[in-house]
Amino acid sequence: MAAIDGLPALREVIRDHDLVAKxxxxxxxLLDLNLTAKIARxxxxxxxxxxxxxxxxxxGLTRGLLAEGARRVLAVxxxxxxxxxxxEIAAHYPGRLEVINGDxxxxxxxAHLTPPIRIAANLPxxxxxxxxIRWLTPAVWPPFWESLTLMFQxxxxxxxxxxxxxxxxxxxxxxxxxxxxxxxxxxxxxxAFTPAPKVHSAVVHLQALPEPRYPxxxxxxxxxxxxxxxxxxxxxxxxxxGLHPQIESLLEAAGIPPTxxxxxxxxxxxxxxxxxxxx
Length: 279
Fold this sequence. Notes:
Residues 35-210 form the Ribosomal RNA adenine methylase transferase N-terminal domain. With 279 residues, the protein is of the alpha/beta class. The protein is 35% helix and 18% strand. It has 2 domains: 10-208, Vaccinia Virus protein VP39 (Rossmann fold), CATH 3.40.50.150; 218-278, rRNA adenine dimethylase, C-terminal domain (Helicase, Ruva Protein, domain 3, Orthogonal Bundle), CATH 1.10.8. Strand 5, helix 5 (128-136) and strand 6 form a beta-alpha-beta unit. The protein is elongated, with a radius of gyration of 21 Å.
């Protein structure tokens, strides 16, 4: 494993600080610094950006982000056992790494970041989807971040980039693709991690669009999509019946056969239906 800086190899860091990954925290440490540098490069040009990292653990991706020139990194780590290892990285990169010991679901990160901002993280499995949904559904758009470069279980990554008619297509795909360009940039096998998870992982890059792909009220669109996919085996005229007494007419006006199922309806059609419901 080639070094990307003058710091010890991650296996040494984990051994020296006795950092056994905790399942309760959703931890799986990525130890190959070549891979962490590759993930950092997938986040784009970081030299002009502050970068938010959630769940840095022993700091493998943190080191990749700093070595690739991130202007500044804010690392939010819930596990206090990791703080000494991260402090060593901060000392190696003076003034460029701030570490907060806290829960990413509760920390006000904007008080510590200066735009432009990108987010890059090997997200803990137990909070990854919740954080993604928060970042995709701010009160105003564009959001505070320019892009997200995030590691998920491969199945979750496939749900984010899924297309209509595929097995993975659902609410997460529509939520992500309505406001972002989303693509999988890397797939990693279980053995890349310590401990090895039971599934493959994948890195997804989401680039925020200046405005949503199609106009729609976010709350109405979410209601339509939720109703459709909560009963995805039902025809839409049945699953959406509670939204409007003339739902069949509205479906037809949106170009959607009332007998269609949600998994075959495009983002543009869902947005069209949301606009009709708003009227």
